[in-house]
Design goal:
globular; alpha/beta; Thioredoxin-like_sf; Thioredoxin; single chain; 5-stranded mixed β-sheet
Length: 108
């Protein structure tokens, strides 16, 4: 586990994401999800490369159901970028590091 990745919950979502002074990329995932496990090392790398620019956060959709329902998370992994307390962009699935960094660069 990286110290650069923040694990968040329904209870901490407002403080950790909506009130963050930096953009926050939330990875909605589950332990049983194969593509979620495949994207995890990519998120580790990105959390170091984008340190100070964007916060990488993970929310387990099995343990936390209010926030995923509120943002209509239908499939996982779903990556949602929040800026200034609102959803700025969304990416579904494991699209590889190149597409993920391009997604971040064009939205932060």
């Amino acid at each position: 586990m990286s110290e650069n990745i923040k694990y968040i919950s329904d209870a901490s979502f407002e403080a950790d994401v909506l009130k963050s002074d930096r953009p926050v990329l939330v990875d909605f995932w589950a332990e049983w999800c194969g593509p979620c496990k495949q994207i995890a090392p990519i998120l580790e790398e990105i959390s170091q490369e984008y340190d100070g620019k964007v916060v990488i956060a993970k929310m387990d959709v099995d343990a936390n159901q209010q926030v995923p329902a509120k943002f209509a998370i239908r499939g996982i992994p779903t990556l949602v970028l929040f800026k200034n307390g609102v959803e700025a962009a969304r990416m579904v699935g494991n699209n590889g590091k190149g597409k993920l960094t391009a997604f971040l660069d064009s939205n932060i």
